[in-house]
Amino acid sequence: MKKFFFSLSLVCLIGYSLPAAAQIIIIEPGCDPYNPCQPPPAPRYVRPVAPRYSAPPVARPVAPAAIVPTAPAGLGQTSGIPFRHWSLGLFWSVGGDDESGMEGGGVYLQYMFGPHWGIEGSLEGLVASSVDSYEYRDIFRASLSALWYPTGLKMEGVSFYLKAGIVSQTVSRYSDGYDTVYNDQYYNDVYYDDTTSGSSLQFGGGLHWRMLDGFLSFGLEAMIVGAPDNGDEYDSTGSASFNLRFMSAVHF
């Protein structure tokens, strides 16, 4: 009987102590059974931000490249042909003034600075004979002139130019000996009268045709030469004259 009560008492004691043993109490810092901790705050709703719209880049228009017009045909040198600056030529000249006709020839040298402008020096000798008398004239001229090609000098083909410059002129006058006593026969002697010199201006123009890659040319030139002035109103060197030149030259 004693064993039964002892066993019952032991069972009751174990049954009372098991719940207490199974209970676990967790105490957080700052919290106690009389001051329970506050629950954590609810998460704050954040509204999603939509991506900001950016317009696509606009392509800027590109200005078209400048169009450079090609030079008109005939200006300056022809494609593939070198520009030849120097010219050396000969010419045959005919013309006349108030006294008589004249003819002769000469030589000239030219230099072209570019397709439009150049310079020329020439030496010329002319013989003039009077139809109404037995007087003759030997005329020597030295000139320096400027050349202008309005449309440019062509290395192949025909070019037009204008010309103006200064001329120095020397005139020697002489006549054949003549005596009416001996049946109007001429003597072989020549009597020189005088020699005068003066200067004047000349102007005109011409055409010339270049060929063989600009190496050779032929030309025609018309010039008006003013009356030479030697500073002596009583000693005339001559009157104004017109001259036509037929020219040929080589170029380098």
Named at the architecture level, the CATH assignment of the domain at 86-158 and 166-251 is: Beta Barrel
Q: Residue-averaged pLDDT, rounded?
A: 79
- One letter per element, helices H and strands E, the order comes to HEEEEEEEE
Number of strands: 8
Low-confidence stretches: 178-188
CATH class assignment of the domain at 86-158 and 166-251:
Mainly Beta
What's the alpha carbon Rg, rounded to whole Å?
60 Å
Shape: rod-shaped
Q: What proportion strand? A: over 45%
CATH topology of the domain at 86-158 and 166-251: Porin
Major pleated sheet = 8 strands, antiparallel, barrel
Distance between the termini: 158 Å
Q: Could you estimate the helical fraction of the residues in percent?
A: under 10%
Helix/sheet category:
mainly beta
What does this structure look like?
The protein is mainly beta. 8% of the residues lie in helices and 48% in strands. The N and C termini lie far apart (158 Å).
What is this structure's SSE topology?
Blueprint: H1 2-22, E1 86-96, E2 101-112, E3 117-129, E4 135-148, E5 157-179, E6 185-211, E7 216-225, E8 241-251
Antiparallel strand pairs: 1-2, 1-8, 2-3, 3-4, 4-5, 5-6, 6-7, 7-8
